């Protein structure tokens, strides 16, 4: 029985309560049309007996209408902060994920509302934890990207809750589903860009670099400004981590590579100065471009690279020397001034602590002698086994997923149609024959992917 | 010589002035050469080495007067000689103006005659005569000190060559002129051309090898140069078929020896140099090079460095070798350092510095550079001044590598899956997606 037109909140609630069918089709067919045509103002009303309509609705059973009420209330100029906060938190705790995936944009609006309320409440941080749980519940799996992801990470950045972002960030995104998550390409770019910033904040440069590479190498026919900004950070992080700009994946869109060349010249010059390991040249380049770096908001990272060049040089010395006096080290890495050996010592101490190098400093003679050692980890402890097993497990998981994907493609309609065409010698719609390899390429860039790879690895 | 483009390239070493040649006896040195290279070498020495300047100029003048028609160069050289003489307070050298005048006339007459002849030959369309005409004209230009025109004439004979002998003659002529001009890429191509002709005589083969070797030397390819010098047959030193208008057998020994030392490893050195009977004959001419090679092979580095140092100034005065001396010496020294260390696990740097005649500090710097360039697998104990061979721990290496590989595999596969899914959902960065393209961040 279709629901009649509703004029008041009471009628709506009545109608909803009478049709407690929680199948998705029912909601799409019967509830949506009603909710859609109601004006925002409608959801602000109370019931006839002056009670809050939300009191009468169970957020688990009536997730979608509940969200409509919340969004409307969050958007008013002066919301009732405390009251609304309780409702939102209640909603985020108990919403039905399959229902809310029908209206992803409403869910995002609720989240945005929560953050607005939290800031009105005077405490931004309170929004982070509920959002984390909500997001975990909301996304179909930990590897799915949703429209809430980038917003959440951005909130974490703004409130400086870097660690709280990790439960989400530490899962690699591999699944993309536009229905039910309401994402567009910008969500993917921003999520990984913000994620990289979080990792940079936590000094986990390896992950940061991976994220930035994902942004830069995203499939593209024009260059997004996010990608250009990502490249700037990428070049600096790459210097910190590898001492040079590592090559981008082969499948990076040519248009992106081109615009990077045009837009990020300062960064490339700076990187080549870094690669030369010439401290003077790096400082010159730094002074020349510092304005640009500051404008891009990368000044902090750049300053870290100024530091990193000394570390890199010390690292190089460990390859060449077994022992070397602090004075010689200071000289070799290009430190100047009276305090140079002291500064060198500080660098070495930091590097020993962070296990970048293995060394001991002896002050018994010649004002400090440093002995460099090899990595003491001989890979003969149970730790090694654990590490290896963990890695193997990860690799197997990944290859399982690849095999699964391979099967899915094998079963997909497009694949079967196309392979049938090829088998019967037919001509492809494009006019040319296409072999399996090209078909897998699916729009370019996938050519170095081999579905058997997983099996071959171990 | 002033206008040859070889000089433009060699200018960077022009400022090196050799004050005292160590072993050079100008008369006997230059007696090995004839023709243009003799004059060029003399002028080169005169420019580089003030003490030998006057003698060199005088010898050059004599050579020019006796066996060429190059009156311009004669006058130039005479002027330079007189400048030097007056500045040092000696009476000036009498310029043989009568010879200059007659030569000028003779050269002009000969040129006109040859051109008329060539025209006639061309009208008669006899291939062989045309070739001879071009050749004669080329020879004449060459004699008059106009290598550019000579090169043109010699190259023109190419179309009229009928036998392989002609081709070889043409090639040798072009090579000779090109070496003088310093145009070594030309030398390369004509050597290849000549070598591809049938029935090539051993002497010609030897000449071609030397020419190609010089070309390689010029482009700093010491290994190829060494190989070619070492393959050169000793027949080239026989008086009737020598190549003294380009190079002397002594030069082959020096160039070949140095290039081999700078680029060969120990095994190659033994096989290709020490056991090479043909090259041994060359080495007899320059005993110090033989000593040098044996010293290097037997790891007597102080002898090696001593010989190198003693002969350095002479090599700086060599027309072809001078701007390679530094890099050849450098390479030899590097090789010696590497070889010195190779049998040891640890080496006392004090002793090593002694053998190489240097200080420990300098040696340390040299070694550090060699280690960074990955020539020596070792590390320096700067405290005790000991050089220690690097202990390779392959087991740990494998662990490290496989852990890294696992990480990379996981990451790249995930990136691939993400990319594939993005493409599948058509989430491509573009301008018109849901009106969000204009939303730039």
From TrEMBL, chain A:
It comes from the Eukaryota. One of its GO terms (cellular component) is cytoplasm. Residues 204-375 form the PCI domain. GO terms for biological process: ubiquitin-dependent protein catabolic process. It is found in: Cytoplasm; Nucleus. Keywords: Cytoplasm, Nucleus, Signalosome. The keyword Cytoplasm applies. Pfam families: COP9_hel_rpt, PCI. The keyword Amino-acid biosynthesis does not apply. Belongs to the CSN3 family. This is COP9 signalosome complex subunit 3. The lineage of its organism: Eukaryota, Fungi, Fungi incertae sedis, Mucoromycota, Glomeromycotina.
TrEMBL record, chain B:
It comes from the Eukaryota. Residues 104-131 form a coiled coil. Residues 221-394 form the PCI domain. Keywords: Coiled coil, Cytoplasm, Nucleus, Proteasome, Signalosome. It holds the Pfam family CSN1_C. It is found in: Cytoplasm; Nucleus. InterPro entries: CSN1_C, PCI_dom, Rpn7/CSN1, Rpn7_N, WH_DNA-bd_sf. GO terms for cellular component: COP9 signalosome; cytoplasm; proteasome complex. Belongs to the CSN1 family. PANTHER family: 26S PROTESOME SUBUNIT 6, COP9 SIGNALOSOME COMPLEX SUBUNIT 1. This is 26S proteasome subunit RPN7-domain-containing protein. The lineage of its organism: Eukaryota, Fungi, Fungi incertae sedis, Mucoromycota, Glomeromycotina.
